[in-house]
Amino acid sequence: MDLVDDDDVPQLIEAGDEPVIPDSTKVPTDRVPLTIICGFLGAGKSTLLRRILTERHGYRIAVIMNEFGDTADIEAKTINVSSEEDPNAENSEEFLELANGCLCCSIKDSGAAAIEKLMQKKGAFDHILLETTGLADPGPIASMFWQNEEYAMGLGNDIALDGVICVVDAVFGRQQMEEDHAPDDLGVGESLRQVAGSDVILLNKVDLVDEAAAVSMEEIIHKVNPVARIHRTVRGEIDLKHIMGISAYAANTAQARESLGEPLRHHPHLHSHDDSCEHHSENQVTHYEMRGITSLQISCPVFNAARLERLDEWIRSVLWERRLPGSSSSQDIQVLRCKGLFTVETGEQYVLQGVRSIYELSKVSSGEDADLGVPDIGKMVLIGKGLNDEVRKSLEVLVAS
Ligand SMILES: Nc1nc2c(ncn2[C@@H]2O[C@H](COP(=O)(O)OP(=O)(O)OP(=O)(O)O)[C@@H](O)[C@H]2O)c(=O)[nH]1
Question: Which residues are in the CobW C-terminal domain (predicted)?
């Protein structure tokens, strides 16, 4: 079942004389954060979730293990967890409250119905983890929980997308990405879409590879997605603060700068081409391509209001019409993820967040981050297909004009 039609006309920001720029201060704050966990087949998603469901970590998490986005029943494999009171509960109950405070949910309904049932238990958990099938593309699922007007009146009021986590197999990940060529409008397969559309990547099974192979894999991941944080894991062992509460979609200066700044600082041994360019503030398209997926990073000077409006128009054209403004022909551009942080002359800051055709360019509330030394230089990162030199030049001309 397709939860979201890629071709749907995006509804977030309507074209008009004035850009509709939401103020992040108006976003409700009492929502339950939701983290989507995707990953290659057999990469270790269930192992990670089993750990979360059984270890004492102090978090109250509702874990949904479901063939989400599919009409199939719950995954045949069982997460072998049991409560002390009823060791067979997972076989009979939709909801299993675990000794460590987590709530395990195996919900047969797919999609929104599963989440609606879970939200009836709101209060019993502080965070939702949603496991997707190994073949799932996280983009449409993320879109369902982020800036989706259809859900804004119902589900969207209760849930806030926190981030997308991708578990990558350190042994077979490279092969999976290279061989992956599912025929679709983008011409790339799911494993690449998962890496491109994620905010945090867990490079799992590093116990099975040597240091050189792990570094090489990190470099490949970084070149496909320069803004994702990469953590090495063995059997999903990771401090949960790295995958929960990351606010990857927040319209918040500190978070935006964090995700746009130095994504590889956990890995000082990595000095890729991208990093050196970054230090020189050089705008560039990554020279590495994996089945046409590239990233484009650009530095932006302080904007005036008119330029911000033109940038908004540029984004609409590229994300919605897949072409550069002023160009009559389709250039086959498809953006999977975009992020940005911009400062305008008045001192106000704007954060760009985008998942495919849906985006939000929102003003950061005044006073926020006032003491953090906000840099004058803004930055924008696009990840997707067709992001060639022509696209980069078009953006450079726009931000410099
Ligand atoms: N050596 C090693 N084995 C691991 C690690 N993580 C998971 N495994 C094993 O890899 C196999 C697949 O792990 P799963 O957690 O089932 O993977 P998955 O991503 O849920 O698989 P699918 O749902 O089929 O896509 C299992 O046999 C795990 O025990 C790891 O870090 N190191």
Answer: 309-395
